[in-house]
């Protein structure tokens, strides 16, 4: 894991970055690896790849963070990227794998109320995706919206959103 994280830092080759991120993502399926990746500063390195100009690299970074977000301590660090994830979702092509990867991460990050406030500005985008997206996109958006709607503090924001 340490070598993969160092590889991510050392290379600018998008194909190598994609493969390293896929491997880290698969490794994150095991809870012990989630802690190791966090302790090796892997979350910030992977999070730094969210601004990559190659969409496939960003998508793979989102997938890795999604798998890593199953851990409360990891969520505390990943929450710093929620605004950027929302921007990626809004900027991504409609129904793209990149958009879906971002929505999956937001679904995990919105299970608890802790980070809902960071998604408020994207509520209009979520409603747009709900009306314009494919069934697959709609399902992922609905998961986020259901999580947000479980929080009474979000009611006003959900009902007042410009759609």
Largest beta-sheet details: none
Report the β-strand fraction as a percent range.
under 5%
Give me the secondary-structure category: mainly alpha
Number of domains: 2
Q: Which stretches of 5+ consecutive residues score pLDDT under 50?
A: none
The end-to-end distance, rounded to whole angstroms, is 44 Å
Membrane topology: Single-pass membrane protein
Subcellular location: Mitochondrion outer membrane
Domain Armadillo repeat-containing: 1-163
Protein name: ARM10 protein
Q: Any key phrases for this structure?
A:
163 residues, mainly alpha, Leucine-rich Repeat Variant, 11 helices, 0% strand
What does this structure look like?
The protein has 163 residues and is mainly α. 70% of the residues lie in helices and 0% in strands. It folds into two domains: 1-79, Leucine-rich Repeat Variant (Alpha Horseshoe); 81-162, no CATH class. It is built from eleven helices and no strands.
Produce the secondary structure layout.
Blueprint lengths: L1 H9 L3 H14 L3 H9 L2 H7 L6 H14 L3 H7 L3 H10 L5 H13 L13 H10 L2 H15 L5 H6 L3
Helix pairs in contact: 1-2, 2-5, 5-8, 7-8, 8-10, 9-10
Membrane topology: Single-pass membrane protein
Main location: mitochondrion
Subcellular location: Mitochondrion outer membrane
Concise structural overview:
This protein is an all-alpha fold and 163 residues long.
